[in-house]
Amino acid sequence: MLFPKKIDFFRLFLYLLFGGAAFFLYFVLDNGEPIALALVYAMVSVGFLPIPSALLCALPAVLSFDIFKILLLLGQTLLVAFGQFFQSKIKRQGLKKSGLFSLLSLSVSLALFVWLAPFDPYHLPIPVPNDALTQKVLLSAVIFILSAVFTVALKALLRKFLKCRLRADEGIFVITFLVLIGVGICRFLGVNAYMGMAFFFLLLFTCATKDASGMLCAFFLSLPPLLTAGISPVKFFLYGAVVCAFIKAGRIATSCALLISFFLYGYFDGLYEYAAPQLVAAMLSAVIPTLLFVLIPTPVVRFLENKLVYYREKHLSRVAINRNRAAVGEKLFEISAVFREIQSTFTALGASEAETGAKEYIRDRVVDEACKACPQYPLCQKRHLAPSLNALVSVGCMKGKVTLIDIPRALADACNNQTALLYALNRQLGEYKNYVTETENAATGRALLAGQAQGVSEILRTLALEQSEPLRVYTDKERALNIALLRVGIVCSEVLVYGDEENLTLSLVTFGKADVKIIAEIATQLLGAPMMISERLPLSDDKFCCVLRKKPFFDAAYGVATVHKKGERVSGDTHSVIKIDERRFMVALSDGMGSGEYARRVSESTITLLESFYRAKMPSPLILSSVNKLLTFNKEESFACVDIAIVDLDSGLTDVVKIGSPLAFILSGNTVKILESSSLPLGILDSLHPDAASYQLAENDVLLFISDGVSDAFGTAADMYECLRSIPAHNPQLLTDSLLEGALRASGGTAKDDMTAVAVRLFKSVA
To answer: What per-residue string of b and e applies to 418-427 under the rule 16 or more CB within 10 Å gives b?
Structure first.
């Protein structure tokens, strides 16, 4: 297609943009050399229409006012454009990839330049012949090479600019293309005009990147003035350094700093010795771009910043991580559904049908053993005594044994062999009792397994939801962290910030012996949340991976004091203080009923189960129900009084569960709050009704759990209250030690039962 069917305004803008580039390329050299042929070749190669491309690139020749030059350049550009166009229409892949027609048309076009174009040879300070023919041949070779350079540059600008990183060769070719255009601007508009454009671009680029790459930009911007007017690049290095140093202070501060450096450098550079018109032009070349830079709308600057940061980042690792997280989350959902089905199956397997079947079996066995041998059996069948016999069987199943007074009246009046009937029924009821025990145990086991399956299902479902959520992108924070750490001498090759705003995690790779405290301080300042080093993993001898997580608002200190019963070698009380995760911890006290080794085993088993279940993040009601059922399975009496508290270190919110335990206390300043329990201990009944409540703990509040040996020693809550009021609560260990000393004094100096006290105090971890 030679002409478009419909106007694409962005495409039109690109035509005008590259037309302007062709215009300035025409003035790179003195003789109007056809450097624009390389641009035509490149434009048609990347998909621009041949005729508009050729006309735009030949248009600058009009300024020569030489008909011959105009027609020659127009013919050359059309020849190159149509050569490229016909090359793209070739069907044979081998011939199409060879680029034969496009290269041939370019060669013929350059041959026309060598043969026909008027040319004044250059006097160059290098060993190059000064005759026109030789120099035209050399220039043709350069233009031939530039056609490939411009093609790569245009493809990179159109397809990759602000989208992804450019390859090294693409970057070099783009810079070559832009430098040649800059040379044309310097030669046509003058160095002052170019300087104004360069200032504006330097300011905009450094504002978007906010790093030392502004110095590199200043170097490339210095090349056109160096090539055309011999201006030293030192001036641009100075401007680049000033802009990079002040850019974080804001656009106004940066613009003022650039203007001050411009006028100060002008004093040493002889700026003020220029004639008035030249002086005004030089000053305007700095003032106008800085003013325009200040007036750029902030959303435009933010857009450029995000674009530059985005295309400079490596995203494939994030994509791979998110895909893996999604795949793991999907699998966890599937496994969760399996355990949910297991729970449903165990729940559906009730024992009611089995019990009904057992009663029918007992009735049939009694009829076979006692009734069928009786001569009156046919008569009893006619009297329809089956309901009465069923009622007698049901009573026997409830009582475990039947006597004469349990026989229904209708059956007693009709039956002449009641003794044999009762004997057969009681014998079957003995076997039924064993069956009921086994059935109840099986039902309890099914309920326990169903609860465990439900708990595992909920844990997996929670993990699936966490894993399925993709990592959020914090590229601006990562970049700021990298720069801030580099300023204090900590080099990071990789920085990754992920998680939600309330639970940020920072991972970074450092070299050498980096100060983790400084890393945590800088991360806290830039992320706006208190951060702490969670892990430091060695990757090699001098490379480490540091993982930082948000520091909880509170931390905790605890104290434990215990005394076993006189005459026993061990205490039946067991305690636990463990971290469930980074932001929660559990404190628990279990008092095994009785004392000695067996009570110790019961309380240890209870605490171990609680620790395991809570660490697995199983729902609290399921944890307590499961532990209760496991204790009831024991043939011996296995009872335990338990105090449990789950403390949120971010908010101080504390969930307290009391099961058959004595008093507990919250000490806050000069006040004491008493926590009571009315439920039975664990392991007595299958059903469980714990006392649960939530309390808001503040800084320096103390949570105190005690076993019944301590409460029994004091006798009354009032006596214990008075003892607590006399003990300073700031040190949990001192509190528990002093409390047990008071309990021993109250009991006459002898521990009549196991005594244990566990105290936990919250304090601020974040200043």
So the answer is: eebbbebbee
